[in-house]
Amino acid sequence: MNAEGDAEFNAPYSIGTHSLSASYSGDNSYNKSTSSTVTFTVVKDSPNIFAGAANGSATVANTFTNGQATVFYIIVENSANYQNEQSYGMVLASAVTPPTGTVSVTGLPSGSSSSPATLVPSVDPSDGLPAGVAQFTIPASACTSTCSYNLTISYTGDSNYTALTGTNAASGTITVAPPTPTTLLSSTPRRGTLCGESFNSAPGASPRSARRNRMRDET
């Protein structure tokens, strides 16, 4: 208990209904006491899905430079942390278990990585928050001019996170095109948000504005 008379207790409560009460032992000035019981329910989180690649265009939304392999990183992340940033304009990391399971991508051209892929526990490089990460690759030989692909990303879910499949799956159209004088390459994946919505990210967004606007890219 701190000087203000506050105490905190954190526990990894499982999915389901729980009840708790607090008791105070008392001291020379205060009698001991016990609170009434509080009942609460822990539900599964509906995660956010982010996707991006290092060869994303800095000026044209959802466009990637061909002539090289396009390596997509799929990041599945706890949505509560994202909502905290939406509300407070800053990253408020909470200790969470990263999503596990598999992600599937449909609409990739022939020769691309097989699907599904298993999520690997990692961290989101943009904010350091726990995340599950998978990788898919479109080979350079798949497109030698300008090609568009309608992608759908599904997540199987696990004991802590709901599945994102069917109408809840993330979907959108990407374009692989030759480089232009206005296309810049980044050493880190440019990232857009896929949360069961159309993938319609805007180029050139800063990391923080990208996180605050779900449909923007992030470097």
Question: Count the strands?
Answer: 15
Ends distance: 42 Å
CATH C-level label: Mainly Beta
Following the backbone from N to C, one meets helices and strands in this order, namely: EEEEEEEHEEEEEEEEH
Supply the helix-strand structural class.
Answer: mainly beta
Biggest pleated-sheet summary: 6 strands, mixed
Shape descriptor reads: elongated
Looking at the structure, the CATH topology is Immunoglobulin-like
Helix proportion range:
under 10%
Poorly predicted residue ranges: 182-190, 193-219
Radius of gyration: 22 Å
Number of helices: 2
Average pLDDT for all residues = 79
**Beta-strand content estimate:** 25-35%
Q: In the CATH classification, which architecture applies? A: Sandwich
- Count of the separate structural domains: 1
Question: Can you characterise this structure?
Answer:
Helix content is 7%, strand content 34%. The strands form four sheets. Strands 6, 8, 9, 12, 13 and 15 form a six-stranded mixed beta sheet that branches. The protein has a five-stranded antiparallel beta sheet with strand order 10-11-7-5-14. The protein has a two-stranded antiparallel sheet with strand order 1-4. The protein contains two helices and 15 strands. Residues 182-190 and 193-219 have low confidence and may be disordered. It is mainly beta. The chain has one domain (48-212): Immunoglobulin-like (Sandwich).
